[in-house]
Amino acid sequence: MLQAGWLRGDAVLALLLATRVVAAFEPITVGIAIGAASAITGYLTYNDIYCRFAECCREERPLNASALKLDLEEKLFGQHLATEVILKALTGFKNNKNPKKPLTLSLHGWAGTGKNFVSQIVAENLHPKGLKSNFVHLFVSTLHFPHEQKIKLYQDQLQKWIRGNVSACANSVFIFDEMDKLHPGIIDAIKPFLDYYEQVDGVSYRKAIFIFLSNAGGDLITKTALDFWRAGRKREDIHLKDLEPVLSVGVFNNKHSGLWHSGLIDKNLIDYFIPFLPLEYRHVKMCVRAEMRARGSAVDEDIVSSVADEMTLFPKDEKIYSDKGCKTVQSRLDFH
After folding, report:
1. Does 114 show up as a binding residue in the annotation?
2. Boundary-marking domain end, from 276, 296, 312
3. Cβ distance 305 to 285 under 8 Å?
4. Over the range 280-319, which residues count as b (16 or more CB within 10 Å of their CB) and which as e?
5. Which residue in 50, 73, 196, 282 has its CB near the most CB atoms, within 10 A?
6. Do the record's keywords include Ligase (predicted)?
7. What is the pLDDT, as a whole number, of residue 35?
8. 6: annotated binding-site residue?
């Protein structure tokens, strides 16, 4: 019996190794090899084996809330509101077996405050390959929708792209970067997909996630943060209720927000407007330390201070916030 077990194990191993080789050539051959392995073992399904060598859309894959929390707390600096709201929003959404609509988040703040970085963290926690996943789709306004005279074409393409990808994977993630550079009206093409419909043309979008990234509203966020600072209050005292209503109205009325007079706001289809606060000098130093560790370098506080000192701070008199956040930390560190 022991020898038979070895033989079966060797056969399965050989077949699994064969799938690695043939996977690059022909799916049918892969299927035959996997089917043979399943028949020998009696307990491995086609999907079990196939998904070891190819990315699969696993709708039942739970969110590791502890891992997401750790990522946000250890890698995102100075953004207590974003950390709290994103963690609660994603955890609640993924724990809901029957959501009534897709989760839609709109992230706002000046460049370098962490919006893109957060979208990367979210993608990696939802799909192992992160932004490289076949189920995570990134749209950049200036790249994918550059021409104002082609708005109707972009709307049609966007609908087809989202419909096709959600049909293939219900828990797809769609990230729209540079929303403030998106021509007005384009984003409203996806309004039916974000609404409270059980299905649209036979497809359910309720388990998908949409994330908008925008610099629009950065002035409103900075004003609130500065008001708190001048009143002697800590930035951690700022609550979502202090900013979200002002932010949603401001973006709705901003012709350069990508959401100007958008039905997405008018019909309350965006679940959270998440403000990213301007970063202070101390936060820039945190970014430098994190980048040095990521490069495998020992943290040198002299270099940390030198890089942080190169940043331009505003307002002119108080010099509190970095005008580029942490955006240029990597390139500046290269010179030290």
Report:
1. yes
2. 276
3. yes
4. beebbbbbbbbbbeeeeeeeeeebbeebbeebebeeeeee
5. 50
6. no
7. 59
8. no
Looking at the structure, do residues 128 and 89 belong to the same domain, yes or no? Answer: yes
Q: Which amino acid is present at 196?
A: Y
pLDDT: is 86 or 335 the higher one?
86
Residue 173's contacts (CB-CB under 8 Å, 6 or more residues apart) are: 122, 123, 126, 127, 133, 135, 136, 137, 208, 209, 210, 211
Q: Is 29 annotated as a binding residue?
A: no
- DSSP β-ladder status, 313-314 and 321-322: antiparallel
User: Is 113 labelled a binding residue?
Assistant: yes
115 marked ligand binding residue? yes
| pTM, two decimal places | 0.86
Q: Cβ contacts of residue 25 below 8 Å, gap of 6+?
A: none
Separation of alpha carbons 97 and 108, rounded Å:
29
pLDDT tens, position by position, 149-200: 999 999 999 999 999 999 999 999 999 999 999 999 999 999 999 999 999 9
- 110 belongs to an annotated ligand binding site: yes
What's the angle, vertex CA 90, arms to CA 87 and CA 96, rounded to 5? 130
Count how many domains the chain has.
Answer: 3
Residue 109 annotated as lining a ligand binding site = yes
Domain extent for 219:
65-276
Mean pLDDT of the chain: 89
Tokens of 198: 């059980």
Do 306 and 189 share a structural domain? no
Greatest mean pLDDT among 27-36, 39-48, 229-238 lies in 229-238
pLDDT in tens, 16-25: 444 444 444 4
Domain shared by 286 and 322, yes or no = yes
